[in-house]
Structures are given as structure tokens and as C-alpha cells.
Amino acid sequence: MIYVKKRVFQKETILMEHIFIRTREKPHVCEVCEKSFIRKGDLFKHVLIHTGEKPHVCEVCKKSFGRKSILKEHMLIHTEEKFHVCQVCNKSFRQKSNLNTHVLIHIGVKPYVCKMCNKSFRQKGDLNMHKLTHTGQKPHVCEVCNKSFGQKGNLNTHMVIHTGRKPHVCVICGKSFGIKSNLKEHMRIHTGEKPHVCEVCNKSFGRKGNLKTHMLLLHAKEELHP
């Protein structure tokens, strides 16, 4: 065993990873794009992007994935079990993180605040995307035409133009979509789910766009003509 400042490491590799985290050194470099990593395992996962290898296969539908964590998330599609239940409205979720986000609707908390304009958000990811509107930064670049986007989701949407692929298929009616989020939105037609709730009158909608239209046509007029 190796001792460093009273911390005990069972393996030298774990000690080295600990040191690299402290020093910010990234010794494991991808030979294709030269991106570097602290952990060798992270490099192996990254290389799958270049090779296209997807070793983790779903036993139900045989769909394959490059990462085990993505396979685990995918498996939730095949199960109807939703263990995480909202104590306010009894709505259930497959993932605890989704429940935590949902609960914020009831308590009205938006803990993530933009320092530039003070606009607040329920999710940190939404705040990060919002910040790009101030900086004008567009870090996500299309490898085909070099067009850049502020949000990765917008890049994914754009890529459908080049590929024409629609891998996300509705299991109920067979309609296919190029983007997973569009499939999720479509599924609400079948399930009747309406997750987008108006904060003024509590009316709910299946699509976020319909909620925005509702806010503009109804509540915006109320503010102009009280």
C-alpha cells in the first residue's frame, strides 16, 4: 500500500489518477483527435466515438450503445416501472433526477440564476444554455458544413438535414423521427401526458410551444388590458 498525506491507496493506478486530478495533468491522449484525459478508462470510452464501436447491447431490442450508462438509461424505455413518485400530484418518474426537476414546478423554486440578467432557471443545464445568448459563443460545430450552434441539441437537429436518418420510432404507430425529443413529444399524443404547466393558471400542455402560445395570447393580453 502507498501512503500520501495520510490517504491510503490500494493500487498505484488509483494513486496516479489522484495525483493527475491534483496537478490537472492529462497523460492519456487520443491518437485521432489529440484530446487528453486524466483516466485511461475515459480515453477508451472516447475512442469509441471514432471507431463507431458499440459494445453494450440491449437484450430486449438489440440496440447497441457505446457506453454502459447510456444502455442503462435506454433500458428504462422497456420497463413501465416508475419508482419515483411526486408526493404533491402523484406523478411518477423512472429517474429520481426527473422527479427532483418536476418538484420545482410545485414549489416555484428556480435556484440557478444568470449573473448577467438575473433570469432564473430550474435546471443548471438551462442556465448554461441561456448564458450562451449573452456571450454569443457557439461551441458545437457541424463536421459536414462547419455551421456552429450554441446548443448541442440544435446541432443534433441540424445533422438530420445531412443524414436524413430517423432512428427514433414510435412503438405505437410506427412513425419515425430524426430527433429523440420529437419522438418524446409525439408520444404524449398517445399517453395524454401534459408536462408543460402554465405558472399563471396551472393549465398544462403536451408541447412547450403550445404553452408559449398560450402565454402570449392569453396572459400577455391580460397584462396589457387588466
Question: How would you describe this structure to a colleague?
Answer:
This protein is α+β, with helices and mostly antiparallel strands and 226 residues long. Strand 5 and strand 6 form a beta hairpin. It is built from eight helices and 16 strands. It has a two-stranded antiparallel ribbon. The termini are far apart. Among the domains are: 50 residues, Double Stranded RNA Binding Domain; 52 residues, 2-Layer Sandwich (Double Stranded RNA Binding Domain).
Q: What characteristic shape results from the CA principal axes?
A: globular
What is the residue-mean pLDDT, rounded to a whole number? 80
Q: Helix coverage percent of residues?
A: 40-55%
Total strands: the figure is 16
Largest sheet: 2 strands, antiparallel
Please render the helix and strand layout as text:
Elements: E1 2-4, E2 7-9, H1 12-23, E3 28-29, E4 36-37, H2 40-51, E5 56-57, E6 64-65, H3 68-75, E7 84-85, E8 92-93, H4 96-107, E9 112-113, E10 120-121, H5 124-135, E11 140-141, E12 148-149, H6 152-163, E13 168-169, E14 176-177, H7 180-191, E15 196-197, E16 204-205, H8 208-224
Antiparallel strand pairs: 1-2, 3-4, 5-6, 7-8, 9-10, 11-12, 13-14, 15-16
Protein traits:
16 strands, 8 helices, alpha+beta, Double Stranded RNA Binding Domain, ZnFinger_BTB_dom_contain, globular, two-stranded antiparallel sheet, Zinc finger protein 92
